[in-house]
Amino acid sequence: MCGIVGYVGRQSAAPILFEGLQHLEYRGYDSAGIAVLDRDGALAVLKREGKLRDLEASLTEMPRGSAGIGHTRWATHGPPSERNAHPHTSAAGEVIVVQNGIVENYRELRAELEPGLAASGRSWQSDTDTEVIPELIARALADGLSFRDALAQAVGRLRGANAVAAVYRREPGRIYAARQGSAGGIIVGFGEDEMFLASDLPALLRHTTSVYHLEDGDIAEIDADGVLVSRGGAPSFAPQPTQVNLDPVAVARGPYRHFMLKEIHEQPRALSDTIRGRARLSPPRALPADLTFSELALRNIERVLVIGMGTSLHAAMIGRWWIEQIAGIPADFDNASEFRFRAPLLGPSTLVVSVTQSGETIDTLGAISHVRERWDAPQLTITNVEGSEATRQADASIVLRCGPEIGVASTKTFVGSLAALYLLACRLGHAQGRLSDAELSGRLEDLLTAPSLVERGLQLSDRCASVMRQFTAASNFLVLGRGIEYPLAMEAALKCKEISYVHAEGYAAGEMKHGPIALLDDGFPVIALAPRGPLFDKMMSAIQQVRARAAPVIAVGDAGDAELDELVDHFIGVPPTSALLTPFSLSPVIQLLAYHIALARGLDIDQPRNLAKTVTVE
Ligand code: AGP
């Protein structure tokens, strides 16, 4: 949700911290701040409401100091403001902290700390939950604890998932970090006579590819020469770094105007990377290496439940369709945040599949642990981030290999998740004897056409732009689809909402006449997803009903479909494909429609208001 960076070394910390924050701005961008300590412990703090560029103007005022921490915020407690921006400092000004997560018991902690604060004539300086942390550390220091132990004790008192970085004025050559639960992770980067800290790899790549991911409960004590980690009561250890195989170019925007556009265009390659080695034709086999369950366990699966949030939930809905149609196994989908508070009936023969591009979404992680705590059900996670919390908690993982996704709107990881779910359906169908070798081979050959379907969809970008320019002023869209296109209609509506701020609803076309049709008139555009397939005639009837209410229709159908083209106001023709593969031919178009309306409206596409890329708070 928020982004954390840290630096200690020989260079001036402020510009390095700022550059790191630029790579984390996707995580939160309503305010930002930096704290730097010089060798003598003199402290400089710079905070600004708004985007990082508002902080940049004052960066030159920062004194040179070779240790510091920084933060880019997505507000949870207290509105975006300079007062609520991190870092937060203890009342005596000695302890400086940035945090990602939520201190769920901050009210109790504030009540406990308040008398002491009042007695020293001080009061809280912000509305945040964070501010209790430096205060708790300061109390523990006053009791005689070392800074490391004080930090451990303070973090141990927090409820919720939190990542914390801190500096202490009496230890100017050091930065500290702590991880409690899953709060989007925190990574230590190893340099030559310098060390780094960040919530995510893109902030480190320009400096190092040698990293250590802090685990739940870790306290890290970092100076220019290295890091010592303490975990529980055990003696501290110097962790071995691992090498990450990521090119800094993968996290650069390159010639594209927005990361979202870059990532939309990366989809053919991302899809090929997801599928590579996982669709073996001879002898036919899907996912030969990723599913670590035994063949017997796969044969015994009687039901599949696919869960996720947002775009990942829409992928889950399409996955359900494939698992039923291709594998012939009963399947359901569920919204992870709702599922975890229900008492569904699962058992050892239900495979629970979580879809989460980040692997850190709190609602999905909550659902994964809900399953683990209550049922002995096997769990598979589909994620883009190797080593993410979801991969640690599930029994098996399919890592998408789509490359980092920086734009807040998920695009390439959506199609990557689709490919993984399709492969899963093939594997289950084959393992259970419902797909013969020849049928499996045919399904996999179909999937191998997906990258080129997406590639051809991308060529429709100008057409999508010219259609959407005519609807720049629209306040609403209804998006209709049936069957496998229904979740795509929901995904199209979500994309419109999140980056264009247009109210849009995705509906099953058959449901339209049960209520939404009352909204329609000549100022209410409808997007109809209508490729030729088993439900095409029913889609045509729904479009006729829309036309009869004079609502303008934008139809996305098979290229060359003259009947559909004639019926609607605007027609966008995608490459025709088999009924099960339309999610691949339609996805780039629904993404481009949303992108172009946002562009025409002049909006901040990569950093839409109120959103953050990874949702690690409830
Ligand atoms: C997608 O465009 C959204 N930003 C959002 O709905 C996202 O899909 C959702 O928050 C789930 O994220 P995850 O895939 O990382 O779990």
SSE order and pairing:
Layout (H helix, E strand, L loop, with lengths): L2 E6 L4 H12 L6 E7 L5 E7 L2 H5 L10 E7 L14 E2 L5 E7 L4 H14 L12 H11 L4 H10 L5 E7 L6 E6 L6 E4 L4 E4 L11 E4 L4 E6 L2 E6 L10 E2 L15 H7 L1 H9 L3 E3 L2 E3 L8 H5 L3 E6 L1 H18 L3 E5 H4 L10 E6 L6 H13 L4 E5 L5 H5 L2 E4 L12 H20 L5 H11 L2 H9 L2 H9 L6 E6 L3 H16 L2 E6 L17 E4 L6 H13 L4 E6 L3 H6 L2 E5 L7 H19 L18
Parallel strand pairs: 17-18, 17-19, 19-20, 20-21, 22-23, 22-24, 24-25, 25-26
Antiparallel strand pairs: 1-4, 1-10, 2-3, 2-4, 5-6, 6-7, 7-8, 8-12, 9-10, 9-11, 11-14, 12-13, 15-16
Query: Total number of β-strand segments?
Result: 26
Mean pLDDT level:
94
Strand content range: 15-25%
Name the strands of the widest sheet in spatial order: 3-2-4-1-10-9-11-14
Under CATH, the topology of the largest domain can be stated as Glutamine Phosphoribosylpyrophosphate, subunit 1, domain 1
Listed once per kind, the bound small molecules are: 2-deoxy-2-amino glucitol-6-phosphate
Q: How would you characterize the largest beta sheet?
A: 8 strands, antiparallel
Structurally, the number of domains stands at: 3
Low-pLDDT segments, ≥5 res = none
CATH class of the largest domain: Alpha Beta
In DSSP terms (H or I, runs of 4 or more residues), the helix count works out at 20
Estimate the helix proportion, in percent.
25-40%
Please identify, by name, the CATH architecture of the largest domain: 4-Layer Sandwich
The backbone outline, from C-alpha atoms, is globular
* Cα-atom radius of gyration: 26 Å
For the record, give the distance between the C-alpha atoms at the N and C termini, rounded to a whole number: 10 Å
Structural class: alpha/beta
CATH-level-4 superfamily name of the largest domain: Aminohydrolase, N-terminal nucleophile (Ntn) domain
